């Protein structure tokens, strides 16, 4: 009897246990790091038997490949995923709109917005003949039609507004949080996370074809922290960081080639180059922009070996600046290389290659003024003669000297070689 009572009480324990909500923040442009963090957060939430995963979202958009990976993770999740656009002033533009449509619950904070979900290609395809008056290329139409079908399927899966979803893709329309709620694009508006969880309590969501009731009131809210690998990935795939690493690699390798054996510039350049190549492999970039940067540096280097400030230097700076601006596309990645950073590196590169490197080249080709080599070519005077060995006064010092010619005291001579403390001289014809 006691055993039955114990088992009965044990079965009631989950009813009184505090449920767990795991929260993960996804801020900034959607990219490989965002996808990896979401996958790990979902895995952690499932391992902890969490009631749901809460995504706090604020994004200008990003890569469609990473967005689709995240959507697949959400739609195949065994626990409900709640996407909450917050804090006030945040947005879920472009890829963020798709994530909201894919989530089991879509919520927004007042003062936020979503939309502008038209797909953008980094390298536009060549135009093909088309009878449509819109003038869009075939490639652009394919991308838009694919995006429309994708967001439509997400809207139908979660019973959200299909008509507006299509407008967000075809016409890049946007909505405020209040209008999104009125049009059935999102499920609710909440001022903060606590209010959101309270409003979600008792709500039924469709999870893998079955209806699941949420028990979120009074839940324990845990924050999922990305590990150092994900933070590193997020850092190096930032366009500004990838751009800086690329330039450090170029400058470091150039320093090493100009001064073989320096080692440090070469090591730093190679390491930065490997990391930069990894970042460029993770995020799309414009090959024309990269080639313009390399061409600009090549022009500025060429200007170093030409006297006077000319066309090569100016052309190099212009090519470098335009290449930097074209390297990453803000519409595709959600962010690009900042203009102040481009201007700063253009000016620094100009100053370095035109001024500093020119002085460096001149200093290497200048006459030696110190050390043993400096004695070669110096002029002295014979002060003592002893057969074929002489005493020569040179630079205020007396040196032993030999010569193939016969010298006389008081005769001017020029040093042609030095062997230890003995000079080899020749007479200067007057």
Question: Could you write a compact summary of the structure shown?
Answer:
This protein is of the alpha/beta class and 430 residues long. The chain has helices at residues 2-16, 32-47, 64-75, 95-102, 138-157, 162-170, 177-182, 193-200, 228-236, 239-258, 264-282, 287-304, 311-327, 330-333, 339-365, and strands at 20-27, 52-58, 81-85, 91-93, 105-108, 113-115, 174-176, 188-189, 204-207, 210-213, 220-223, 379-386, 389-394, 397-402, 412-419, 422-427.
Give structural notes:
- The protein folds into 3 domains: 209 residues, 2-enoyl-CoA Hydratase, Chain A, domain 1, CATH 3.90.226.10; 129 residues, no CATH class; 56 residues, OB fold (Dihydrolipoamide Acetyltransferase, E2P) (Beta Barrel), CATH 2.40.50.
- About 4% of the residues have low confidence.
- It is built from 15 helices and 16 strands.
- The chain has 430 residues and is an alpha/beta fold.
- The protein is 48% helix and 19% strand.
- A 6-stranded parallel sheet has the order 8-5-3-2-1-11, with helices on both faces. Strands 12-13-14-16-15 form a 5-stranded mixed beta barrel. It has a 3-stranded mixed sheet with strand order 4-6-7.
- Helix 5 packs antiparallel against helix 6.
- The termini are far apart.
